[in-house]
């Protein structure tokens, strides 16, 4: 299992970014995929999850802090998960991690930095 994030960068408040998580070793389309973030001096926060199986398959959820601004999605052909970040705020500044599953302690990528300033 390997996860590689990309798409982070420096953006002004109100701007947008699209993060990508390219996976290998398992199918993204049938797996539960999450995005976490960690701001400087703070703990890991689960931002969003798209569910891969069971009764929640295909559904997604979001932290209250990003609801209505961020959108999680996935592409089976590219075996990639995405996180679209809109209306960015300075509080969104963090390292963003892609995770297979619901727990950040499971498979996790190296992260991509998002800085809103």
For the termini, the CA-CA separation is 34 Å
Largest sheet: 6 strands, mixed
Structural class: mainly beta
The arrangement of helices and strands along the chain is: EEEEEEEEEE
Shape: globular
Helix count equals: 0
Helix content: under 10%
Q: What proportion strand?
A: over 45%
Which consecutive residue ranges, at least 5 long each, have pLDDT under 50? Answer: none
Lateral strand order in the biggest sheet: 2-10-9-4-5-6
Radius of gyration, in Å, reads 13 Å
By DSSP, the count of extended strands is 10
User: What number is the mean pLDDT?
Assistant: 96
Topology:
Elements: E1 2-6, E2 9-11, E3 17-24, E4 33-38, E5 44-50, E6 60-62, E7 70-75, E8 80-85, E9 94-100, E10 112-116
What does this structure look like?
- The protein is mainly β and about 120 residues long.
- Helix content is about 0%, strand content about 50%.
- It contains no helices and 10 strands.
- It has strands at about 1-5, 10, 15-25, 35-40, 45-50, 60, 70-75, 80-85, 95-100, 110-115.
- The strands form 2 sheets. Strands 2-10-9-4-5-6 form a 6-stranded mixed beta sheet, with no helix packed on it.
- Strand 4 and strand 5 form a beta hairpin.
- It is globular.
- The N and C termini lie far apart (about 35 Å).
- The mean pLDDT is about 95.
In short:
The protein is built from no helices and ten strands.
Features:
single chain; 117 residues; mainly beta; six-stranded mixed sheet; four-stranded antiparallel sheet; 10 strands; globular
